[in-house]
Amino acid sequence: MDYAIWTLAGIVYGFVMGLVPVAGAATALIALFPFIDVFRADPYILVCFSTAIVVASTIGDSFASVVLNIPGASGSAATMVDGFPLAQQGQAGRALSAAITTSVVNGAIWGVLVFAFLPVYATWVLNFGIPEMMMFLLLAFCSVVFVNSQYWFRGILALALGVFVGLIGQDPITGAARFTGGWDYLAAGVQLVPIMAGILAFPELVEAYRRRRVAVTPVTGNWAQIVQGMRDSWQHRWDGLRGGFVGAVIGIVPGIGGNIADWLAYGQTVAANPRESVPFGTGNIKGVIGAEGANNAQKATSYVPTILFGVPGAPFEVIILALFMMVGLELGTPSLLADTQFFAAIGLSYAAALVITFVLAMLFVRWAQRAINLPFAWYFWPVMAVLIWTSAQYTGYWEDYAVFAMCCVLGLAMREFKLSRAAFIIGFALSDQLEKIWYQYHMLYSTWDFATRPIAVTLCVLAITVTVWGLFFNRSRISYI
Predict the structure, then answer these.
(1) Element (H, E) at 178
(2) CA triplet 83, 85, 88: central angle to 5 degrees?
(3) DSSP 8-state symbol, 331
(4) Distance CA 298, CA 111 (A)
(5) How many CB atoms lie within 10 A of CB 296?
(6) pLDDT tens digits, the chain, 481 residues: what are they?
(7) Count of domains in the chain?
(8) Does some domain include residue 273?
(9) How far apart are CA 390 and CA 190, in angstroms?
(10) Which end of the chain is more exposed for a tag (fewer CB within 10 A), N or C?
(11) b/e string for 323-344 if b means 16 or more Cβ within 10 A?
């Protein structure tokens, strides 16, 4: 019963945070750190709660994208291209219904393939040794640098900066402080919360402030539009399924995240429909369906590298890794991969959240325009207060605020100069693991020993393939994030 209650609570909380422009799953999860003690007695409650948050906020993200022309989160940005023009034409209900239906259907398909078979995948992961993990990290780094951004050289710089910041603190070999500049506060390293809040969340809040809202035509015939949107989703199901496949592939590749999945899915939809009576970008419902197909599908498959290898499949998964570790669930370890209760908790909460949030979202469509078209200050300052308060929970002294402020400045600078924030976050999150694997490999193996191991060679080839594709064939519209 406790698990069901916490799952319902996660659905409500996640859906509300999804409605808040630019907040999404990452901001919702960041706010959990001060309350982590609540979950220590039973870590599986956190599994249910956080999974419900991710699902509900992902579905809720679509509302702001369609009604306000401001993405609920980066993974719903492409939905704005055709969703907002439809809203301006008085068809917000149709666009939202089609978006929600497509997102939930693809989330169900890929959720089953992921969570029902995760225990099976876990047995295969036991074949991974140190060389395989080193090549998997290489694949993650190549993916986030060469696929996630047009500016690959800046991506390398951002990744290197993230690794450097992650290495600040205590040297695991000598025990000496390193890169702290004599500041004792950094002896235990830079904390994750201000990094996520300042690098990812704060720049999006500022960007939302810069956007000008355009009034949309009031919605009429809500239920008729909801039914029409569901029909559209079925009529153009191949566009939605194609988007879901794109999102699933992007999600399973470590480090990329949803910010590119929806744009790639949208681009594939445009390419597959070259002669449309309604041009894309002016309110073509296929554009909404194609982009939203990738939304929940990407969220589902991003759990695969996160759970099996402890390598985040998307930036928000970095927070999942940290939260779970704080309650004793270390992802990617043999003990967790053998934990059947963990797999049951995450699979059942995902399924329940998907079904319940679908009903909740459909009932909310008719009030969406009125409920979320609020003055900017109504959501900016509460979200900002949550970010500051959460970042100050480490010590409660001025150093917490100073580090958060520095991260905010760095996040704004990275956005302005198009340095990949996703690459920075992935580099920061994997810096400890990279250092450990690097030392272990060079202690136990010679440089080219990985070439004698088929899985390691396969991962190396995939990393090279990703790099070549990103350099010469990537036509993604994502320039940075």
Answers:
(1) strand 177-178
(2) 115
(3) T
(4) 10
(5) 33
(6) 689 999 999 999 999 888 777 677 888 898 898 899 999 999 999 999 999 999 999 888 888 778 776 666 655 677 887 888 888 788 888 888 999 999 999 999 998 888 888 887 777 776 788 898 888 888 888 877 876 666 788 889 999 999 999 999 888 778 788 888 889 899 888 988 899 888 888 887 787 777 655 544 455 557 888 889 899 999 989 999 998 888 888 788 776 665 677 777 777 788 788 777 888 778 889 888 988 888 888 888 888 888 888 888 777 888 898 899 999 998 888 888 888 899 999 999 999 999 999 999 888 887 766 655 566 667 778 888 888 888 888 888 899 999 999 999 999 999 888 888 888 988 888 888 888 888 888 888 888 888 889 889 998 998 898 888 777 776 554 444 4
(7) 1
(8) yes
(9) 14
(10) N
(11) bbebbebebbeeebbebeebbe
User: Is 479 inside any structural domain?
Assistant: no
Residues 29 and 49 sit within 8 Å (Cβ to Cβ): no
What is the domain range of residue 81?
2-472
Nearest-angstrom CA–CA distance, 305 and 255: 9
Residue 480 within any structural domain of the chain: no
Half-sphere exposure of 202 (CA within 13 A, CB side): 26
Query: What CA–CA distance (Å, rounded) separates 383 from 396?
Result: 19
Residue 90 in any domain: the answer is yes
* Structural tokens at position 140: 């993650």
Smallest CA-to-CA distance from 204 within 401, 479, 408 is with: 408
Backbone φ/ψ region at 375: left (φ over 0), alpha (ψ -120 to 50), beta: beta
CA 266 to chain CA mean position, Å: 18
340-346: long-range contacts at Cβ-Cβ below 8 A with a sequence spacing of 24 or more? 340/119, 341/44, 342/44, 342/47, 343/115, 343/118, 343/119, 345/3, 345/44, 345/47, 345/48, 345/51, 346/47, 346/48, 346/51, 346/115, 346/118, 346/303, 346/307
Look up residue 26 and give its two tokens.
């990452």
Helix, strand, coil percent content, the chain, rounded in steps of 5: 75, 0, 25
